[in-house]
Sequence to fold (229 residues):
Amino acid sequence: AIQMTQSPSSLSASVGDRVTITCRPSQGIGDDLSWYQQKPGKAPKLLIYAASTLQSGVPSRFSGSASDTDFTLTISSLQPEDFATYYCLQDYNYLWTFGQGTTVEIK
Amino acid sequence: QVQLQESGPGLVKPSETLSLTCTVSGASISSSSYSWGWIRQPPGKGLEWIGNIYHSGRTYYNPSLKSRVTISTDPSKNQLSLKLSSVTAADTALYYCARYSAIDGIKFFDYWGPGTLVTVSS
Fold:
């Protein structure tokens, strides 16, 4: 099964900061990667799919990108409502795997 | 508007079978454009994919749970169900059902239920 290594596991940041979260798959997955935001007591919410496509209604400060080895979620200017836990999900070849999650906390 | 709602016992004894139902409204569980999945989250931990079922009845399961999991649908009730056998305390978690869109190769979970907490304890 494909493993997803997500980093960092947590980070502290201030409002207005640029935040970057990375997921690295254990093998190639094409662009079969999505990003989710989860707030305490709530179900995850889709932010990005196909590695870099912004889901309708999601603020444009969120973006996704891919390199040869990694996938990155960037929040260009952190807002108070963005403090949450973020997960990547790969869904290559009918076996889904979540990253371990990154908790974004207020500095 | 698509809505999903999980239901089932909140407490299950060790070695017994956990059974949950997800009732879907606003979308047909028989649609060929979607599959339907179960995901769980132990208290204070991350998300774990359990499995998905397609309109054809084809299922895909997490290899670590495959021997104990069965996912099925009841199109007449627009429901999907999850059965997890031989449960232990490690199966205590918040269980979510979710819709998985796979149209034109674009894939994601777009609608989720609020989740239901299942505790395994005697």
